[in-house]
Amino acid sequence: MTKIRLHNTKTRRKEVFEPLDPQNVRMYLCGPTVYDRAHLGNARPVVVFDVLYRLLRKEFGADHVTYVRNFTDVDDKINATALARKEAGAVGTLEELIRERTEETIGWYHADMDALGALRPNFEPRATDYIGAMIAMIADLIEKGHAYAKDGHVLFRVRSYQNYGALSGRSVDDMIAGARVEVAPFKEDPMDFVLWKPSDDELPGWDSPWGRGRPGWHIECSAMSEELLWKKPLAEGHLSDEAKKFPHMFDIHAGGIDLQFPHHENEIAQSCCAHPHADGTPGEFARFWLHNEMLQVEGKKMSKSLGNFFTVRDLLDQGIPGEVIRFVFLQTHYGKPMDWTAEKAAQAETTLRKWYKLAETALDNEEPYVGVLNALTDDLNTAAAIAECWQLYHASDAPSLRASMSLLGLMSGSTPGWASLPDVDLSAYVVALADQRAKAMETKDFSAVDALKSALMAAGVEVRMSKAGVELLPGAGFDASKLPDV
RNA sequence: GGCGGGUUGGCGGAGAGGUUACGCAGCGGAUUGCAAAUCCGUGAAGACCGGUUCGAUUCCGGUACCCGCCUCCA
Protein backbone atom coordinates (compact mmCIF):
# COMPACT_ATOMS: atom_id res chain seq x y z
CA MET A 1 0.00 0.00 0.00
CA THR A 2 1.20 3.48 -0.83
CA LYS A 3 1.89 5.69 2.11
CA ILE A 4 -0.47 8.62 2.25
CA ARG A 5 1.07 11.83 3.44
CA LEU A 6 -1.07 14.77 4.48
CA HIS A 7 -0.34 18.26 5.68
CA ASN A 8 -1.55 18.41 9.26
CA THR A 9 -2.46 21.93 10.32
CA LYS A 10 -2.02 20.88 13.93
CA THR A 11 1.70 20.25 13.46
CA ARG A 12 2.18 22.43 10.37
CA ARG A 13 3.96 19.55 8.72
CA LYS A 14 3.36 16.90 6.14
CA GLU A 15 2.97 13.62 8.01
CA VAL A 16 2.46 10.00 7.06
CA PHE A 17 -1.19 9.19 7.55
CA GLU A 18 -1.86 6.00 9.43
CA PRO A 19 -5.42 5.55 10.64
CA LEU A 20 -6.19 4.49 14.18
CA ASP A 21 -8.01 1.56 12.63
CA PRO A 22 -7.38 0.63 8.99
CA GLN A 23 -10.63 -1.31 9.07
CA ASN A 24 -12.53 1.86 9.87
CA VAL A 25 -10.96 5.11 8.72
CA ARG A 26 -12.99 8.01 10.07
CA MET A 27 -13.21 11.54 8.73
CA TYR A 28 -15.39 14.56 9.43
CA LEU A 29 -15.91 17.61 7.24
CA CYS A 30 -17.64 20.78 8.39
CA GLY A 31 -20.61 21.10 6.08
CA PRO A 32 -22.79 24.01 5.04
CA THR A 33 -25.21 26.18 6.91
CA VAL A 34 -28.33 25.52 4.93
CA TYR A 35 -29.86 28.94 4.49
CA ASP A 36 -29.28 29.38 0.74
CA ARG A 37 -27.70 27.95 -2.38
CA ALA A 38 -24.07 26.93 -1.99
CA HIS A 39 -21.74 29.50 -3.49
CA LEU A 40 -18.63 28.51 -5.40
CA GLY A 41 -16.39 28.84 -2.36
CA ASN A 42 -18.54 26.36 -0.47
CA ALA A 43 -17.81 23.81 -3.15
CA ARG A 44 -14.03 23.79 -2.79
CA PRO A 45 -13.77 21.76 0.42
CA VAL A 46 -16.47 19.43 -0.85
CA VAL A 47 -14.50 18.67 -4.00
CA VAL A 48 -11.01 18.47 -2.54
CA PHE A 49 -12.05 16.32 0.38
CA ASP A 50 -14.12 14.18 -1.95
CA VAL A 51 -10.83 13.34 -3.62
CA LEU A 52 -9.47 12.43 -0.20
CA TYR A 53 -12.51 10.25 0.49
CA ARG A 54 -12.05 8.49 -2.85
CA LEU A 55 -8.35 7.99 -2.17
CA LEU A 56 -9.02 6.55 1.28
CA ARG A 57 -11.65 4.22 -0.15
CA LYS A 58 -9.16 3.10 -2.77
CA GLU A 59 -6.41 2.48 -0.23
CA PHE A 60 -8.40 1.03 2.65
CA GLY A 61 -11.43 -0.34 0.84
CA ALA A 62 -14.75 1.29 0.11
CA ASP A 63 -16.42 -0.30 3.13
CA HIS A 64 -13.69 0.75 5.53
CA VAL A 65 -14.05 4.52 5.43
CA THR A 66 -16.65 6.52 7.32
CA TYR A 67 -17.18 10.05 6.09
CA VAL A 68 -19.40 12.45 8.03
CA ARG A 69 -20.43 15.86 6.80
CA ASN A 70 -22.95 17.84 8.78
CA PHE A 71 -25.74 20.22 7.88
CA THR A 72 -25.98 23.22 10.15
CA ASP A 73 -29.67 23.94 10.34
CA VAL A 74 -29.64 26.11 13.45
CA ASP A 75 -28.64 29.58 12.40
CA ASP A 76 -29.78 33.16 12.59
CA LYS A 77 -29.82 33.54 8.82
CA ILE A 78 -32.16 30.58 8.53
CA ASN A 79 -34.33 32.09 11.22
CA ALA A 80 -34.38 35.40 9.42
CA THR A 81 -35.39 33.78 6.14
CA ALA A 82 -38.17 31.81 7.79
CA LEU A 83 -39.37 34.86 9.69
CA ALA A 84 -39.42 36.88 6.48
CA ARG A 85 -41.55 34.20 4.84
CA LYS A 86 -43.92 34.12 7.75
CA GLU A 87 -44.31 37.87 7.63
CA ALA A 88 -44.93 37.61 3.89
CA GLY A 89 -47.89 35.43 4.72
CA ALA A 90 -46.51 31.92 4.44
CA VAL A 91 -48.58 29.29 6.20
CA GLY A 92 -47.22 27.30 9.12
CA THR A 93 -45.37 27.76 12.37
CA LEU A 94 -41.92 29.26 12.44
CA GLU A 95 -40.44 25.84 13.14
CA GLU A 96 -42.28 24.40 10.15
CA LEU A 97 -41.13 27.18 7.91
CA ILE A 98 -37.58 26.67 9.06
CA ARG A 99 -37.78 22.96 8.40
CA GLU A 100 -39.25 23.73 5.00
CA ARG A 101 -36.46 26.12 4.19
CA THR A 102 -33.67 23.81 5.33
CA GLU A 103 -35.20 20.80 3.54
CA GLU A 104 -35.33 22.80 0.35
CA THR A 105 -31.75 24.02 0.74
CA ILE A 106 -30.43 20.54 1.47
CA GLY A 107 -32.09 19.33 -1.72
CA TRP A 108 -30.34 22.07 -3.69
CA TYR A 109 -27.08 21.29 -2.01
CA HIS A 110 -27.28 17.64 -2.90
CA ALA A 111 -28.16 18.39 -6.50
CA ASP A 112 -25.31 20.88 -6.86
CA MET A 113 -22.63 18.77 -5.18
CA ASP A 114 -23.77 15.68 -7.10
CA ALA A 115 -23.22 17.68 -10.28
CA LEU A 116 -19.64 18.30 -9.17
CA GLY A 117 -19.09 14.57 -8.92
CA ALA A 118 -18.85 14.54 -5.12
CA LEU A 119 -19.84 11.28 -3.50
CA ARG A 120 -22.40 11.51 -0.72
CA PRO A 121 -20.84 11.06 2.71
CA ASN A 122 -21.86 8.03 4.77
CA PHE A 123 -23.63 10.29 7.24
CA GLU A 124 -25.03 13.78 6.82
CA PRO A 125 -26.36 14.63 10.26
CA ARG A 126 -28.50 17.68 10.86
CA ALA A 127 -27.74 19.69 13.95
CA THR A 128 -31.39 19.77 14.95
CA ASP A 129 -31.40 15.98 15.20
CA TYR A 130 -28.63 16.06 17.79
CA ILE A 131 -29.79 18.75 20.20
CA GLY A 132 -30.07 16.16 22.97
CA ALA A 133 -26.46 15.05 22.52
CA MET A 134 -25.36 18.69 22.59
CA ILE A 135 -27.27 19.44 25.77
CA ALA A 136 -25.73 16.38 27.42
CA MET A 137 -22.27 17.44 26.36
CA ILE A 138 -22.79 20.99 27.63
CA ALA A 139 -24.07 19.71 30.97
CA ASP A 140 -21.03 17.50 31.21
CA LEU A 141 -18.72 20.42 30.52
CA ILE A 142 -20.38 22.42 33.27
CA GLU A 143 -19.99 19.53 35.66
CA LYS A 144 -16.32 19.23 34.82
CA GLY A 145 -15.78 22.93 35.43
CA HIS A 146 -15.13 23.88 31.81
CA ALA A 147 -18.36 25.78 31.30
CA TYR A 148 -20.73 27.95 33.28
CA ALA A 149 -24.32 29.11 32.98
CA LYS A 150 -25.18 32.79 33.27
CA ASP A 151 -28.37 34.64 32.33
CA GLY A 152 -29.70 31.79 30.20
CA HIS A 153 -26.39 31.47 28.39
CA VAL A 154 -23.84 28.74 28.83
CA LEU A 155 -20.27 29.68 28.07
CA PHE A 156 -17.12 27.71 27.62
CA ARG A 157 -14.44 28.74 30.08
CA VAL A 158 -11.48 29.20 27.74
CA ARG A 159 -9.05 29.65 30.63
CA SER A 160 -9.86 26.13 31.78
CA TYR A 161 -8.22 24.62 28.72
CA GLN A 162 -4.53 25.24 28.64
CA ASN A 163 -4.02 24.29 24.99
CA TYR A 164 -6.59 26.76 23.73
CA GLY A 165 -5.14 28.37 20.58
CA ALA A 166 -2.72 25.58 19.75
CA LEU A 167 -4.32 24.73 16.42
CA SER A 168 -4.28 28.26 15.10
CA GLY A 169 -1.11 29.39 16.81
CA ARG A 170 -2.69 31.99 19.03
CA SER A 171 -2.63 32.68 22.69
CA VAL A 172 -5.59 33.89 24.64
CA ASP A 173 -3.63 36.81 26.00
CA ASP A 174 -2.49 37.94 22.55
CA MET A 175 -5.98 37.78 21.20
CA ILE A 176 -7.36 39.88 24.00
CA ALA A 177 -4.53 42.34 23.47
CA GLY A 178 -5.53 42.46 19.80
CA ALA A 179 -8.90 43.47 21.20
CA ARG A 180 -11.66 42.68 18.83
CA VAL A 181 -13.57 40.35 21.05
CA GLU A 182 -17.13 40.84 22.07
CA VAL A 183 -17.38 41.98 25.63
CA ALA A 184 -20.57 40.71 27.15
CA PRO A 185 -21.70 41.10 30.74
CA PHE A 186 -22.37 37.39 31.11
CA LYS A 187 -18.80 36.42 30.18
CA GLU A 188 -16.15 35.69 32.78
CA ASP A 189 -13.50 36.25 30.17
CA PRO A 190 -13.88 38.07 26.87
CA MET A 191 -12.64 35.02 24.94
CA ASP A 192 -15.24 32.66 26.37
CA PHE A 193 -17.61 31.43 23.68
CA VAL A 194 -21.24 30.45 23.65
CA LEU A 195 -22.34 26.84 24.05
CA TRP A 196 -26.01 27.65 24.56
CA LYS A 197 -28.02 30.82 24.20
CA PRO A 198 -31.58 31.74 25.04
CA SER A 199 -34.29 32.01 22.37
CA ASP A 200 -37.22 34.38 22.51
CA ASP A 201 -40.63 33.49 21.11
CA GLU A 202 -39.63 34.63 17.63
CA LEU A 203 -36.82 32.10 17.46
CA PRO A 204 -36.70 28.33 17.38
CA GLY A 205 -35.72 26.82 20.70
CA TRP A 206 -35.41 23.67 22.70
CA ASP A 207 -35.98 23.07 26.38
CA SER A 208 -32.81 22.69 28.38
CA PRO A 209 -31.61 22.88 31.99
CA TRP A 210 -30.83 26.54 31.24
CA GLY A 211 -34.23 27.40 29.83
CA ARG A 212 -35.57 27.44 26.29
CA GLY A 213 -32.76 28.14 23.88
CA ARG A 214 -30.55 26.93 21.05
CA PRO A 215 -26.99 25.69 20.78
CA GLY A 216 -24.01 27.79 19.85
CA TRP A 217 -22.47 26.97 16.53
CA HIS A 218 -19.39 25.02 17.55
CA ILE A 219 -20.91 22.41 19.83
CA GLU A 220 -22.74 20.61 17.04
CA CYS A 221 -19.56 19.33 15.41
CA SER A 222 -18.17 18.13 18.73
CA ALA A 223 -21.39 16.31 19.53
CA MET A 224 -22.03 14.81 16.11
CA SER A 225 -18.47 13.62 15.49
CA GLU A 226 -18.55 11.95 18.91
CA GLU A 227 -21.89 10.28 18.16
CA LEU A 228 -21.11 9.08 14.65
CA LEU A 229 -17.39 8.46 14.67
CA TRP A 230 -16.95 7.10 18.18
CA LYS A 231 -20.12 6.01 19.97
CA LYS A 232 -21.92 4.49 17.00
CA PRO A 233 -19.06 2.37 15.61
CA LEU A 234 -18.17 1.38 19.17
CA ALA A 235 -21.72 0.26 19.92
CA GLU A 236 -21.91 -1.64 16.64
CA GLY A 237 -18.61 -3.38 17.27
CA HIS A 238 -16.86 -1.73 14.35
CA LEU A 239 -13.82 -0.57 16.26
CA SER A 240 -10.69 -2.63 16.58
CA ASP A 241 -8.93 -3.12 19.89
CA GLU A 242 -6.28 -0.76 18.63
CA ALA A 243 -8.82 1.97 17.93
CA LYS A 244 -10.38 1.49 21.37
CA LYS A 245 -7.08 2.48 22.91
CA PHE A 246 -7.78 6.00 21.62
CA PRO A 247 -11.21 6.78 22.97
CA HIS A 248 -13.21 9.61 21.39
CA MET A 249 -10.59 10.11 18.71
CA PHE A 250 -10.94 9.84 14.96
CA ASP A 251 -8.59 10.27 12.04
CA ILE A 252 -9.27 13.36 10.00
CA HIS A 253 -11.14 16.59 10.53
CA ALA A 254 -11.31 18.89 7.52
CA GLY A 255 -12.72 22.23 6.49
CA GLY A 256 -11.93 25.64 5.10
CA ILE A 257 -9.00 27.53 6.59
CA ASP A 258 -11.41 30.25 7.70
CA LEU A 259 -12.80 27.75 10.18
CA GLN A 260 -9.43 27.17 11.82
CA PHE A 261 -10.23 29.90 14.24
CA PRO A 262 -12.46 30.09 16.09
CA HIS A 263 -14.62 27.18 14.98
CA HIS A 264 -12.12 24.33 15.02
CA GLU A 265 -10.25 25.73 17.98
CA ASN A 266 -13.50 25.71 19.92
CA GLU A 267 -14.40 22.22 18.81
CA ILE A 268 -11.07 20.99 20.10
CA ALA A 269 -11.53 22.74 23.44
CA GLN A 270 -15.02 21.31 23.91
CA SER A 271 -14.21 17.78 22.87
CA CYS A 272 -10.90 17.47 24.67
CA CYS A 273 -12.36 18.84 27.90
CA ALA A 274 -15.47 16.69 27.66
CA HIS A 275 -13.42 13.53 27.18
CA PRO A 276 -10.39 13.76 29.47
CA HIS A 277 -7.81 11.07 29.98
CA ALA A 278 -8.06 8.79 33.02
CA ASP A 279 -5.71 11.07 34.93
CA GLY A 280 -7.97 14.03 34.36
CA THR A 281 -5.82 15.83 31.81
CA PRO A 282 -7.58 16.96 28.63
CA GLY A 283 -8.21 14.23 26.09
CA GLU A 284 -7.62 14.29 22.37
CA PHE A 285 -9.78 14.77 19.34
CA ALA A 286 -9.05 14.54 15.63
CA ARG A 287 -5.52 13.45 14.77
CA PHE A 288 -5.19 15.16 11.40
CA TRP A 289 -6.55 18.60 10.65
CA LEU A 290 -6.79 19.45 6.98
CA HIS A 291 -7.67 22.91 5.76
CA ASN A 292 -8.27 24.17 2.26
CA GLU A 293 -7.31 27.71 1.31
CA MET A 294 -9.83 30.21 0.07
CA LEU A 295 -11.22 30.80 -3.37
CA GLN A 296 -11.04 34.00 -5.34
CA VAL A 297 -12.81 35.08 -8.51
CA GLU A 298 -10.84 36.77 -11.28
CA GLY A 299 -8.19 37.68 -8.73
CA LYS A 300 -10.51 39.17 -6.15
CA LYS A 301 -12.36 37.98 -3.12
CA MET A 302 -15.80 36.79 -4.04
CA SER A 303 -18.27 39.23 -2.59
CA LYS A 304 -21.69 40.52 -3.33
CA SER A 305 -20.50 44.11 -3.35
CA LEU A 306 -17.93 43.42 -6.08
CA GLY A 307 -20.59 41.74 -8.18
CA ASN A 308 -18.49 38.61 -8.57
CA PHE A 309 -20.53 36.50 -6.21
CA PHE A 310 -22.14 33.43 -7.68
CA THR A 311 -23.41 30.03 -6.73
CA VAL A 312 -22.56 26.63 -8.13
CA ARG A 313 -26.04 26.57 -9.62
CA ASP A 314 -25.38 29.85 -11.44
CA LEU A 315 -22.43 28.28 -13.22
CA LEU A 316 -24.28 25.07 -14.02
CA ASP A 317 -27.15 27.11 -15.42
CA GLN A 318 -24.71 28.99 -17.61
CA GLY A 319 -23.86 25.68 -19.19
CA ILE A 320 -20.57 25.13 -17.40
CA PRO A 321 -20.58 21.41 -16.64
CA GLY A 322 -19.89 20.16 -13.13
CA GLU A 323 -16.89 18.20 -14.34
CA VAL A 324 -15.38 21.42 -15.67
CA ILE A 325 -15.86 23.18 -12.33
CA ARG A 326 -14.31 20.20 -10.60
CA PHE A 327 -11.36 20.12 -12.99
CA VAL A 328 -10.64 23.80 -12.41
CA PHE A 329 -10.65 23.18 -8.65
CA LEU A 330 -8.30 20.23 -8.95
CA GLN A 331 -5.79 22.20 -11.01
CA THR A 332 -4.76 24.06 -7.87
CA HIS A 333 -3.46 22.37 -4.76
CA TYR A 334 -6.04 22.60 -1.99
CA GLY A 335 -3.62 24.33 0.37
CA LYS A 336 -3.17 27.33 -1.93
CA PRO A 337 -5.54 30.12 -2.76
CA MET A 338 -7.44 29.30 -5.92
CA ASP A 339 -8.58 31.76 -8.52
CA TRP A 340 -11.72 31.00 -10.51
CA THR A 341 -11.61 32.54 -13.98
CA ALA A 342 -13.76 32.12 -17.06
CA GLU A 343 -10.64 31.37 -19.08
CA LYS A 344 -9.70 28.45 -16.84
CA ALA A 345 -13.17 27.03 -17.25
CA ALA A 346 -12.92 27.26 -21.03
CA GLN A 347 -9.52 25.57 -21.07
CA ALA A 348 -10.70 22.87 -18.70
CA GLU A 349 -13.60 22.10 -20.99
CA THR A 350 -11.29 21.72 -23.99
CA THR A 351 -9.01 19.42 -22.03
CA LEU A 352 -11.83 17.26 -20.72
CA ARG A 353 -13.32 16.83 -24.20
CA LYS A 354 -9.99 15.46 -25.38
CA TRP A 355 -9.61 13.17 -22.43
CA TYR A 356 -13.13 11.79 -22.58
CA LYS A 357 -12.72 11.07 -26.26
CA LEU A 358 -9.79 8.81 -25.47
CA ALA A 359 -11.01 7.47 -22.12
CA GLU A 360 -14.38 6.32 -23.43
CA THR A 361 -12.65 3.83 -25.71
CA ALA A 362 -11.62 1.81 -22.65
CA LEU A 363 -13.46 -0.32 -20.12
CA ASP A 364 -14.03 0.53 -16.51
CA ASN A 365 -11.99 -2.07 -14.72
CA GLU A 366 -8.41 -0.83 -14.95
CA GLU A 367 -6.25 0.36 -12.09
CA PRO A 368 -5.41 4.06 -11.96
CA TYR A 369 -1.96 4.97 -13.15
CA VAL A 370 0.65 4.70 -10.39
CA GLY A 371 1.87 8.22 -11.15
CA VAL A 372 -1.59 9.60 -10.48
CA LEU A 373 -1.89 7.58 -7.30
CA ASN A 374 1.52 8.74 -6.10
CA ALA A 375 0.58 12.35 -6.75
CA LEU A 376 -2.59 12.01 -4.70
CA THR A 377 -0.95 10.19 -1.83
CA ASP A 378 1.48 13.11 -1.60
CA ASP A 379 -0.88 15.44 0.24
CA LEU A 380 -3.54 15.33 -2.47
CA ASN A 381 -1.42 16.85 -5.19
CA THR A 382 -4.23 17.00 -7.68
CA ALA A 383 -2.33 19.40 -9.96
CA ALA A 384 0.45 16.85 -10.34
CA ALA A 385 -2.15 14.12 -10.86
CA ILE A 386 -3.57 16.09 -13.76
CA ALA A 387 -0.09 16.46 -15.25
CA GLU A 388 0.27 12.67 -15.00
CA CYS A 389 -3.03 12.26 -16.80
CA TRP A 390 -1.61 14.30 -19.66
CA GLN A 391 1.18 11.76 -19.98
CA LEU A 392 -1.42 9.03 -20.24
CA TYR A 393 -3.27 11.02 -22.85
CA HIS A 394 -0.17 11.52 -24.97
CA ALA A 395 0.66 7.84 -24.64
CA SER A 396 -2.92 6.99 -25.73
CA ASP A 397 -3.27 4.85 -22.62
CA ALA A 398 -7.06 4.89 -22.54
CA PRO A 399 -7.60 2.31 -19.76
CA SER A 400 -5.24 4.05 -17.33
CA LEU A 401 -6.59 7.47 -18.20
CA ARG A 402 -10.13 6.31 -17.64
CA ALA A 403 -9.31 4.73 -14.29
CA SER A 404 -7.33 7.78 -13.20
CA MET A 405 -10.15 10.10 -14.14
CA SER A 406 -12.49 7.92 -12.10
CA LEU A 407 -10.26 8.21 -9.07
CA LEU A 408 -10.29 11.98 -9.50
CA GLY A 409 -14.07 11.92 -9.72
CA LEU A 410 -14.10 13.09 -13.33
CA MET A 411 -15.51 9.90 -14.79
CA SER A 412 -18.43 8.09 -13.27
CA GLY A 413 -19.50 5.22 -15.45
CA SER A 414 -19.63 7.00 -18.76
CA THR A 415 -18.66 10.15 -20.60
CA PRO A 416 -20.98 12.96 -19.56
CA GLY A 417 -23.50 13.99 -22.17
CA TRP A 418 -22.01 17.40 -22.81
CA ALA A 419 -18.69 15.87 -23.86
CA SER A 420 -20.18 13.23 -26.10
CA LEU A 421 -20.36 13.93 -29.78
CA PRO A 422 -23.92 14.55 -30.91
CA ASP A 423 -25.24 11.69 -32.94
CA VAL A 424 -26.14 13.40 -36.20
CA ASP A 425 -26.03 12.27 -39.78
CA LEU A 426 -23.84 14.63 -41.77
CA SER A 427 -23.32 12.26 -44.70
CA ALA A 428 -25.20 14.52 -47.12
CA TYR A 429 -22.71 17.27 -46.35
CA VAL A 430 -19.80 14.90 -46.70
CA VAL A 431 -20.98 13.94 -50.18
CA ALA A 432 -21.65 17.52 -51.21
CA LEU A 433 -18.36 18.79 -49.89
CA ALA A 434 -16.35 15.98 -51.45
CA ASP A 435 -18.14 16.54 -54.73
CA GLN A 436 -17.50 20.27 -54.83
CA ARG A 437 -13.94 19.72 -53.76
CA ALA A 438 -13.27 17.25 -56.56
CA LYS A 439 -14.60 19.76 -59.07
CA ALA A 440 -12.60 22.56 -57.55
CA MET A 441 -9.44 20.54 -57.79
CA GLU A 442 -9.91 20.62 -61.56
CA THR A 443 -11.21 24.15 -62.05
CA LYS A 444 -8.90 25.62 -59.35
CA ASP A 445 -11.90 27.65 -58.21
CA PHE A 446 -12.33 26.88 -54.52
CA SER A 447 -14.86 29.58 -53.69
CA ALA A 448 -17.87 27.26 -53.53
CA VAL A 449 -16.17 24.61 -51.43
CA ASP A 450 -14.76 27.26 -49.09
CA ALA A 451 -18.20 28.75 -48.63
CA LEU A 452 -19.71 25.42 -47.69
CA LYS A 453 -16.80 24.72 -45.41
CA SER A 454 -17.19 28.00 -43.53
CA ALA A 455 -20.92 27.48 -43.20
CA LEU A 456 -20.35 24.07 -41.65
CA MET A 457 -17.73 25.45 -39.31
CA ALA A 458 -20.11 28.21 -38.28
CA ALA A 459 -22.54 25.47 -37.23
CA GLY A 460 -19.85 23.98 -35.02
CA VAL A 461 -18.79 21.19 -37.35
CA GLU A 462 -15.17 20.20 -37.45
CA VAL A 463 -14.15 19.92 -41.11
CA ARG A 464 -11.32 17.60 -42.01
CA MET A 465 -10.20 17.31 -45.60
CA SER A 466 -7.31 15.14 -46.58
CA LYS A 467 -6.21 13.08 -49.53
CA ALA A 468 -8.16 10.21 -48.02
CA GLY A 469 -11.38 12.14 -48.24
CA VAL A 470 -13.72 14.39 -46.29
CA GLU A 471 -14.62 13.88 -42.64
CA LEU A 472 -17.17 15.90 -40.69
CA LEU A 473 -17.48 15.79 -36.92
CA PRO A 474 -19.87 17.76 -34.74
CA GLY A 475 -17.63 19.79 -32.44
CA ALA A 476 -17.91 21.61 -29.14
CA GLY A 477 -20.27 24.36 -30.22
CA PHE A 478 -22.35 22.23 -32.59
CA ASP A 479 -25.74 23.72 -33.42
CA ALA A 480 -27.88 21.75 -35.83
CA SER A 481 -30.09 24.76 -36.51
CA LYS A 482 -27.17 26.58 -38.07
CA LEU A 483 -26.42 23.87 -40.61
CA PRO A 484 -26.57 25.22 -44.17
CA ASP A 485 -28.99 23.89 -46.78
CA VAL A 486 -27.55 21.65 -49.40
C1' G B 1 -2.29 45.44 16.21
C1' G B 2 -2.06 39.65 16.50
C1' C B 3 -1.97 34.91 13.64
C1' G B 4 -1.60 32.40 8.95
C1' G B 5 -1.03 31.79 3.45
C1' G B 6 0.96 33.56 -1.11
C1' U B 7 4.56 35.98 -4.83
C1' U B 8 7.45 30.73 -10.54
C1' G B 9 8.29 31.80 -17.97
C1' G B 10 2.82 35.67 -22.15
C1' C B 11 -1.14 33.02 -18.95
C1' G B 12 -2.37 28.90 -15.53
C1' G B 13 0.36 25.84 -12.29
C1' A B 14 3.75 21.61 -9.74
C1' G B 15 8.05 19.21 -7.90
C1' A B 16 13.11 19.08 -6.65
C1' G B 17 19.70 21.97 -3.28
C1' G B 18 22.84 20.62 -9.01
C1' U B 19 19.43 16.79 -14.18
C1' U B 20 12.67 18.45 -19.44
C1' A B 21 7.42 19.64 -14.79
C1' C B 22 2.87 19.76 -17.14
C1' G B 23 -1.18 22.49 -19.81
C1' C B 24 -2.72 26.76 -22.77
C1' A B 25 -0.85 30.48 -25.96
C1' G B 26 3.64 31.69 -29.29
C1' C B 27 7.30 30.23 -32.90
C1' G B 28 9.36 26.42 -36.62
C1' G B 29 8.20 21.93 -39.31
C1' A B 30 5.14 17.64 -41.20
C1' U B 31 0.25 17.27 -43.24
C1' U B 32 -3.77 20.26 -46.26
C1' G B 33 -5.86 23.25 -52.62
C1' C B 34 -6.27 26.71 -48.11
C1' A B 35 -7.70 25.49 -43.36
C1' A B 36 -9.06 22.58 -39.09
C1' A B 37 -7.52 18.49 -36.27
C1' U B 38 -3.25 15.70 -35.26
C1' C B 39 1.96 14.82 -34.78
C1' C B 40 7.23 16.44 -34.19
C1' G B 41 10.47 20.26 -32.55
C1' U B 42 11.44 24.88 -29.84
C1' G B 43 12.37 29.84 -27.09
C1' A B 44 10.79 31.63 -22.32
C1' A B 45 10.74 31.66 -15.12
C1' G B 46 10.87 31.68 -10.03
C1' A B 47 8.99 39.67 -6.20
C1' C B 48 13.40 42.30 -3.98
C1' C B 49 17.96 42.38 -0.70
C1' G B 50 21.32 39.62 2.08
C1' G B 51 23.20 34.80 4.21
C1' U B 52 24.56 29.36 4.18
C1' U B 53 26.78 26.31 0.09
C1' C B 54 31.36 24.20 -4.68
C1' G B 55 26.33 25.43 -6.38
C1' A B 56 19.59 28.00 -4.54
C1' U B 57 14.11 29.42 -7.88
C1' U B 58 14.38 25.27 -3.99
C1' C B 59 17.28 26.18 2.93
C1' C B 60 17.78 30.69 6.51
C1' G B 61 16.99 36.06 7.64
C1' G B 62 14.99 40.69 6.17
C1' U B 63 12.02 44.06 2.76
C1' A B 64 7.87 45.00 -0.51
C1' C B 65 3.22 43.80 -2.31
C1' C B 66 -1.31 40.59 -2.37
C1' C B 67 -4.84 37.57 0.30
C1' G B 68 -7.36 35.20 4.50
C1' C B 69 -8.69 34.89 9.77
C1' C B 70 -9.24 37.51 14.55
C1' U B 71 -16.66 40.17 13.22
C1' C B 72 -20.64 32.37 14.40
C1' C B 73 -18.51 33.26 5.70
C1' A B 74 -15.73 26.92 3.24
Automatic annotation (TrEMBL):
GO terms for molecular function: cysteine-tRNA ligase activity. A motif ('KMSKS' region) lies at residues 301-305. Keywords: Aminoacyl-tRNA synthetase, ATP-binding, Cytoplasm, Ligase, Metal-binding, Nucleotide-binding, Protein biosynthesis, Zinc. ATP binds at residue 304. It catalyses: tRNA(Cys) + L-cysteine + ATP = L-cysteinyl-tRNA(Cys) + AMP + diphosphate. A motif ('HIGH' region) lies at residues 32-42. InterPro entries: Cys-tRNA-ligase (IPR015803), Cys-tRNA/MSH_ligase (IPR024909), Rossmann-like_a/b/a_fold (IPR014729), tRNA-synt_1_cat_dom (IPR032678), tRNAsynth_Ia_anticodon-bd (IPR009080). It is an enzyme of class 6 (ligase). Residues 17-348 form the tRNA synthetases class I catalytic domain. Zn(2+) binds at residues 30, 221, 263, 267. Its EC number is 6.1.1.16. It holds the Pfam family tRNA-synt_1e. Its cofactor is Zn(2+). Binds 1 zinc ion per subunit. It is found in: Cytoplasm. HAMAP family: Cys_tRNA_synth (MF_00041). Monomer. Belongs to the class-I aminoacyl-tRNA synthetase family. This is Cysteine--tRNA ligase. The lineage of its organism: Bacteria, Pseudomonadati, Pseudomonadota, Alphaproteobacteria, Rhodobacterales.
